[in-house]
Design goal:
This protein is of the alpha+beta class. The protein has 20 helices and 24 strands. Strand 7 and strand 8 form a beta hairpin. It starts with a strand and ends in a 5-residue tail after the last helix. The N terminus is likely disordered.
């Protein structure tokens, strides 16, 4: 579940949602939560893609989803509690909801609340103990897949290690808010405070959200306030830092940095970073660990041009004691920052010189003015229209190859994914969709014109999702482009619709206008060759080692996900105007380069260490061991920076920036090839006290290797044409 603290593009359905959302679920005293529960349950049974009845098996899953929503790390409930709930509700929870009876939600929450109260009292005692941190014990990092503690005695052991680990982490942190014991005490007092603040509406919201997510992770119950947040994002007017957060393991975790937003322009906040504390301007930091997600969002939001400081645990940190402070100036994320943009990249000398076009696509946006979202209605914005314009200018500049960068593109408009595909293929089918009745609809590109037929690479990673996957899959199935990047894309191959429950409830229902909405999965996507993009995503033709390429990112990491399956392929005509792909030769050449590229060796090493840490899932409680690990991490980082400075630029090229505003400019604007993200309204870049400034700009090895692969494609095509001409054949 995710929350926004900045604009999110239209067409990508992501809403503010949280297990412990304090917003009004219903207008107090006006709507019957039982009636809303009945409506949610019936629509899930009748409208969800799976068409699953809310029977005993689904009830059992529903119960587990609700228990996990309350106690995600399995720390408060015991197996005895769970066994009791299963005997009482396991087979009948669905029947209760269908009758409009939400009392089980309240009864289970009451037990949870009591467990939190009891545990908080014990934790205060544990925090005050004296610890030497010299044992060989370890604490479990993530308990989401662990068993519930057998009983209170078993829970006591888990909490003993957990509190000791948190105290050691705070003691080792370079940036401390306050003494470790005080920080940890405040943290669990905060958990208790928020649980005590939970009202009946909040409990029922958590319960109904759990019911929806029992069917699949993208179905969700939305309260009126959730819908309000969605409408704010549709207006493109929310001021913040430009990121998407999810609640994970007690932290507000960065799920996505919105392209073009303040955080993206600043360049320091990364996906998977966890926010430990927030400060307004120069004020004191406030610990936000285990704080409700929307409360964290509220603290990060603010007025335009004001500063917020985030204390984060970097996503690639193997030790959670590592902290960094990132100051970002809030701003409005403007539509222009979400638009397609391009570069012309020149490298090589004389006859060997190569000119490549690079289009970065942050999202699949479509005709926003038709929805009344643009102030200037004369601006008819769409991905296809903008990319067409950029392509025309790139072709006039004499590009020999094109890379379309979809890294971090979370999707958007299905129609634009289809239309954009049409720029690179003759007319034909692009994607299939199957509904709950098994009916298959084939979406076609009806435009026979091909805007660009030269060498083409589509660059993806695990954060490329939805419409991005449809576009990449179609070009791969047509043999039109080489897909380069992570092993596979995100794997979201489902379609959601939002149902206004108030309009669907009987007209005599009290307060139906405040019933909220249900985001419901109604279809699955399939490639033209028959395989679904669900779960498996799109596999890259050439895989490059990347820190985003891990099992923690993607559909496969989500609970209750829908399975992969296939439908019959549809007939397509391979593009006669497209250039050959030479996949085997490209793979061979790239593999040879990767083996000697130091940046990819770094990536491979970091991926190995990260995966080992995930598999181990423990952290040492020995202070000497932890200090040794921290020193090794610091030394490794410093050595890499030194080595980068000594090696110099990893890839020499001249870059020219091209935006939609530059299309009529006689000359392109030259920019540095290796450069840090631009700062916007941030003033001079500031260093943290005592922080050593990096002498070298961190390279983007994925970008560099993609350009080398494109250069290989151009050379191989040139050789093929030369050979054809020499043999007297038409190229």
């Amino acid at each position: 579940m995710s929350a926004y603290f900045s604009f999110r593009r239209a067409g990508t359905v992501v809403f503010t949602a949280l297990t412990f959302a304090p917003a009004l679920l219903f207008a107090r005293g006006s709507v019957d939560p039982g009636q809303v529960a009945i409506s949610v349950a019936r629509w899930l049974e009748q409208g969800h893609y799976s068409r699953q009845k809310l029977d005993g098996d689904v009830s059992a899953k529903f119960l587990q989803t609700y228990l996990t929503a309350l106690d995600y790390n399995k720390l408060y409930f015991t197996q005895k509690d769970v066994d009791e709930f299963e005997r009482q509700y396991g087979a009948t929870l669905g029947d209760s909801v269908l009758r409009g009876d939400v009392s089980p939600a309240r009864e289970i929450f009451a037990r949870f609340k009591q467990r939190v109260v009891d545990r908080n009292a014990k934790n205060k005692t544990l925090v005050q103990k004296k610890y030497t941190f010299d044992s060989n014990r370890a604490a479990e990092l993530n308990r989401q897949d662990a068993a519930w503690p057998k009983d209170e005695a078993g829970a006591d052991v888990i909490w003993q290690n957990r509190i000791e680990a948190e105290l050691l982490r705070e003691d080792l942190a370079e940036l401390k808010l306050r003494p470790p014991a005080e920080t940890v005490t405040r943290r669990y007092n905060q958990v208790l405070r928020y649980v005590n603040e939970m009202e009946d509406a909040d409990i029922v919201k958590t319960f109904l959200s759990s019911l929806a997510q029992t069917y699949d992770p993208h179905s969700e119950y939305l309260s009126p306030s959730d819908l309000e947040n969605f409408q704010i994002s549709m207006r493109l007017s929310l001021v913040g830092v430009g990121a998407v957060l999810s609640s994970e393991d007690g932290y507000a975790k960065v799920k996505e940095v919105v392209p073009g937003g303040p955080a993206d322009r600043d360049g320091r906040l990364k996906v998977s970073d966890r926010i430990a504390a927030v400060a307004q301007g120069d004020e004191e930091f406030e610990d936000v660990v285990d704080m409700k997600l929307d409360k964290v969002v509220e603290k990060i939001r603010g007025k335009k041009n004001t500063a917020v400081r985030l204390m984060v645990i970097p996503g690639d940190a193997t030790d959670p004691s590592k902290r960094e402070v990132i100051e970002i100036r809030r701003d409005e994320v403007k539509l222009k920052d979400q638009q397609a943009k391009a570069e012309v990249l020149d490298f090589g000398q004389g006859a060997e010189s190569t000119r490549i076009g690079w289009i970065t696509l942050p999202s699949f946006y479509a005709n926003m003015d038709n929805r009344g979202l643009l102030k200037d209605s004369s601006e008819d914005k769409s991905t296809t229209k903008d990319v067409s314009a950029l392509l025309a200018r790139l072709k006039s500049e004499g590009i020999q190859g094109l890379v379309i960068d979809l890294r971090r593109d979370g999707g958007g408009s299905l129609e634009e994914a289809i239309n954009l595909t049409g720029l690179f293929i003759p007319k034909g089918p692009v994607v299939q969709a199957k509904d709950a009745n098994g009916k298959i609809t084939v979406s076609q590109d009806s435009n026979p014109t091909v805007a660009y037929s030269g060498p083409l690479i589509v660059l993806v990673n695990r954060l490329s999702a939805s419409a991005s996957e449809i576009f990449a899959a179609a070009l791969q199935d047509y043999g039109r482009a080489v897909i380069v990047g992570d092993e596979r894309t995100f794997g979201k191959g489902t379609v959601q619709t939002v149902l206004d429950l108030g309009r669907l409830m009987p007209p005599f229902s009290l307060g139906s206008a405040d019933a909220g909405a249900l985001k419901l999965t109604i279809q699955k996507f399939y490639r033209v060759r028959g395989g679904s993009t669900q779960l498996n995503g799109v596999s890259s033709d050439i895989v490059l080692p990347s820190l985003t390429d891990n099992s923690e990112i993607g559909e496969g990491s989500l609970k209750n996900r829908l399975p992969y399956d296939e439908v019959a392929p549809v007939k397509i005509v391979d593009s006669l105007t497209a250039t050959p792909l030479f996949l085997n030769e490209l793979k061979t050449r790239s593999t040879q380069r990767l083996a000697a590229d130091q940046e990819f060796l770094y990536n491979t090493e970091d991926m190995r260490r990260f995966r080992e840490k995930l598999a181990e899932n423990t952290i040492s409680l020995n202070v000497k061991q932890r200090r040794k690990e921290l020193a090794e991490d610091k030394g490794r980082k410093e050595q890499r920076e030194t080595d980068r400075s000594a090696r110099g630029p990893a890839f020499g090229a001249q870059a020219y920036e091209l935006t939609l505003d530059d299309l009529s400019s006689p000359k392109l604007r030259a920019v540095a090839f290796d450069r840090k993200p631009e700062k916007a309204s941030m003033g001079e870049e500031e260093e943290e006290p005592g922080e050593k400034k990096s002498a070298a700009v961190p390279p983007d090895p994925i970008r560099n290797e993609s350009l080398r692969i494109m250069q290989d494609m151009i050379d191989l095509n040139r050789q093929t044409k030369t050979a054809s001409i020499q043999q007297g054949k038409s190229p």
